[in-house]
Specification:
Aminopeptidase, four-stranded antiparallel sheet, 4 helices
Length: about 180
């Protein structure tokens, strides 16, 4: 089932055929550079199962992304609800994880703009957040490009990472409907 279409992308529910390419994405050290560890195939499958359960429960989630031109699976772009406590939770996060071969082509920005428009215009969400390790310049650029704003006072230590962990310090970006320029 297609959820959203952009000029070049289809965002849809997950299919069994997505499991192997998603496991390859999650095992790629370049893709997982700003996560604690790459995922095993079993962990990757479990993540798909959790994503699909969240979509069934909430009516939104992290959608599988494929190229419209040749149906190549690229990863995910969508919405999630963080499962930890922080100064900005509860909230809805916009996020993405794409195969390294698709980087630098504007797919994350294109898909994230479409998801933000869907979040505000269809789901009527009041705000979105996105967060990442401070060092993750690529994701921070996408956040900037979709109009999210960064306030240094919102920087936080991710509670699921131990003290002293290289990736513990995270930046938080925010977006409200009145700040978002629909694509």
């Amino acid at each position: 089932m297609t959820i959203l279409r952009t000029e070049r992308l289809i965002l849809r529910r997950w299919q069994n055929s997505d499991r192997q390419p998603f496991a390859a994405i999650n095992a790629d050290p370049r893709v997982m550079e700003f996560f604690p560890n790459p995922l095993t195939p079993e962990q990757s499958d479990h993540l798909i199962d959790r994503i699909e359960a969240a979509i069934a429960q909430r009516g939104f989630g992290l959608y599988a992304v494929e190229l419209e031109s040749d149906r190549t699976f690229l990863g995910f772009i969508g919405l999630s609800v963080p499962n930890f406590h922080a100064h900005f939770t509860p909230c809805v996060e916009i996020g993405w994880r794409l195969a390294a071969h698709s980087w630098g082509q504007g797919f994350a920005t294109e898909g994230a703009r479409s998801v933000a428009a869907y979040a505000f215009n269809t789901l009527r969400l009041e705000s979105l957040v996105s967060f990442t390790a401070e060092q993750n310049i690529r994701s921070r650029r996408v956040m900037d490009k979709i109009g999210m704003t960064f306030n240094p006072a919102d920087t936080f230590d991710h509670p699921n990472l131990p003290e002293g962990h290289l990736l513990r310090r995270h930046v938080l970006y925010r977006l409200r409907p009145n700040e978002f320029a629909n694509p």
